[in-house]
Amino acid sequence: MMRQYLAILFAPLVLSGCGVAVEYGDIPHSQLVENPRCNPVETDRNAVADKNYFAVTSRLPDCLGEAVSLTNHRTDRVRFARFAPPEISANAKGKKQTRVPLAFQPEADWWNGLREASNLRKGRVLLYVHGYRETFLSTAKDTVQIAELSNFDGPIIQYSWPSQGDLLSYAVDETNMYWDERNFRNFLTKLARQQWVKEIVIVSHSLGARLVIPAVEYVDRTSSNADSSNISNIILASPDIDREDFERDIAEEVLAARRVNNDRRITVYASLNDKALAVSRALHGYPRLGSPYCFNPFEANELKAKGLPERCFATKSTYETQPEKTGFTIIDTTDVTSGGSGHSDYLRSREVCLDFAAAVNGARESPGRIPTHIAHVFRLKNIGKATKEQVAAFCKRAAD
């Protein structure tokens, strides 16, 4: 644990010029994808039979071994796959290892499978976009947890971009995230334009917000459906995105009044105890949307003088004609933060798990929300102490 905290403390120094290098590896990348399993021309029904989760990935696959896996490198094309919950097994030396059962499909077959699954659930789809320091294994665990926690009534897709899964590779992750903007934008555009997709719930974590928001803006600008109304429910968990940039640009497209009135909304989960976003703020120089840090000391002093917590949040958009519905809500999780870094409250805090599950399923209110002096900001009621095991069970979290 101490090593982890020291790494966080020294991360800005590492990222400023001494970052972890990305190694190409010992095998040409072209050899990793030569096996037809990486580029199937038809679906192997036996391979996808028990894989009920959908994946879209720009990670380089490795199809050399018995099981298909995904590396942390970029690839030359986006691939479509089905996967099952991670499995624990023993390797040749008897040591336990966890793997994600994965099978690629031709793109057309993948879309047909998604359509069939969506039509069974009234056209609802959930799209999960992960953040910094993730592997395909870790995001698969999170995807399954989101499904079980929310009991979401529809197919769930994880979009997996080449994050390195390494604490000190933030700069690499940020670079790969920006590299992948076009891939994700194109995928979201195609998803939103499917007539059978009636409702898209997007959940993003950390750096994932910087993929999601520009992509939604693009879909809104280019959609033949003037309101892009099937992208209805956007949830940003611990978003690592510039707060002022978000405030300035969000009203123009993503939360335009006509879209808010068509049920478009954004829910943000933010914590002042988020150590990862504190490092990101130090690196970028300005506050992140997912952290209510008061950049302006005079604003902080005013809050203190009024007996209010020194927490500053993104403001709501100003409209010429106020929408009939509420389009922007911030949930301040500072008082109920759980976990070492405080960066994943939505999956590690009982109070936040409860609220998050409700938000995924479209609830605009939750019994645990406590109003604050700001109309669009809510705190969460602390429901008491609990052991790590109790929290894990409540949040449907698998053992790490």
Automatic annotation (TrEMBL):
Q: Which residues form the signal peptide?
A: 1-21
Give GO terms: molecular function aspect only: hydrolase activity
Q: Which InterPro entries match?
A: AB_hydrolase_fold (IPR029058), DUF900_hydrolase (IPR010297)
What UniProt keywords are attached to this protein's entry? Hydrolase, Signal
Tell me the Gene3D superfamilies matching this sequence. alpha/beta hydrolase
PANTHER family noted in UniProt: ABC TRANSMEMBRANE TYPE-1 DOMAIN-CONTAINING PROTEIN (PTHR36513), TRANSMEMBRANE PROTEIN (PTHR36513:SF1)
This chain's protein is named Alpha/beta hydrolase
Taxonomic lineage is: Bacteria, Pseudomonadati, Pseudomonadota, Alphaproteobacteria, Sphingomonadales
